[in-house]
Amino acid sequence: MASLDVVVTCYQYGHFLRECVASILAQQIDGLRVLIIDNASTDNSLEVARQLAEEDCRIEVAAHERNLGHVASFNEGIDWAKADYFAMVCADDLLTPGSFARAISFLEQHREAGFAIGKEILFRDGEALPEIPLEGEAQWRILSGPDFIADRCRKLYTGPAVVRTAIQKKAGHYREALFFTCDYEMLLRLATFGDVAETAYPQGYRRLHGTNLAVVHQLDRALDLGEFEAAFESFFQNEGRPLAEERHLDRLARRNLVENAYWWGVRDLTKGRWRAGFSLLRFAFTRSPILLFVPPLGFLCEENRPLYRLAQAVQKIILSSRKYPQSPSATPPVKRTNSNSKIAG
């Protein structure tokens, strides 16, 4: 089988690191190298990384003396890579059994594809890993680069990816200006170099815990959508400019962000989350003032019984405003529970 270089980026994740690396070493790839990049962690991350390197000669460690940020670690990994294929894994995440081997096997048979990407399963730290389907049920499809980009303009999600190293080198480094969405923009950029292999089969697990960059950021959905907006703008102003001019995919991305903001805002208002709801609606209205008068019903029509759902949303907002008669900037009162109660997500 072809060779694979995997970069594991780590900051304060010493308690997750060993499990993450074990999921990589279990991939049954002969030509495997793993580089753990510790970004000046103050916990035991570096100690665990060096222990792992002593236990397995395929593991190398790079230790930063000061925190350079995760984007710098990503780019260091790109410069280090020299195998046939390249992948990056965050130290708090895991791979499903055989995921990278499946991806490489498919890419070896389909040379027109520049990278392979799959689904990821979310799980909460401390809980058992969710069960996954039998390995034999994995199915792959080939998308053209523009079709993959169009799909990502409609649906904001990523997943574990294996990239041909030569393609990754051509795409270049991650952009430091895109702190939270540099990985999303990179997927769009990689797709300009050829077809994409995609599977709905779970290729990895994403662990949810209190210090996830993404989880912390998504507490403010308006801010999160702003980061995606910056990623799309960066892409379509640079490598994706031909797709903006020929297929107007930049408009598709912008419309999707606005419609998401509008309906997420409506949903928050129905739940009495005034501050979050009005923040999202402000995002939508500033980018598409027409929404003040005409809601984006096309987005709603993708749901079953759209008119019923719209009427239901309006009714919930009215009932919620009566329950929490506060100013738009206020938040509903917190329901107090005893110290042993779980916090609902």
Write a brief caption for the model.
The chain has 345 residues and is an alpha/beta fold. The protein has 14 helices and 9 strands.
- The helix fraction, in percent, is 40-55%
Poorly predicted ranges (pLDDT <50, ≥5 residues)? 326-345
What Rg do the Cα atoms give?
Answer: 22 Å
Structural class: alpha/beta
The DSSP helix count reads 14
Q: Overall pLDDT, averaged?
A: 87
Record field, number of beta strands: 9
Shape: globular
Sheet with the most strands, sense and barrel status? 9 strands, mixed
User: What amount of the residues lies in strands?
Assistant: 15-25%
Distance between the termini: 43 Å
Give the SSE order as H and E letters.
EHEHEHEEHEEHEHHEHHHHHHH
What labels would you give this structure?
single chain, 345 residues, alpha/beta, 14 helices, 46% helix, disordered C terminus
Task: Walk me through the structure.
By secondary structure, the protein is an alpha/beta fold. The protein has helices at residues 14-25, 45-55, 70-80, 99-109, 145-154, 165-171, 182-190, 213-217, 221-237, 241-246, 249-270, 274-287, 297-300, 306-323; strands at residues 4-10, 32-38, 59-63, 85-90, 94-95, 113-124, 140-143, 161-164, 195-208. Strands 1, 2, 3, 4, 5, 6, 7, 8 and 9 form a nine-stranded mixed sheet that branches. The protein is globular and about 65 Å long. The model is unreliable at 326-345 (pLDDT under 50).
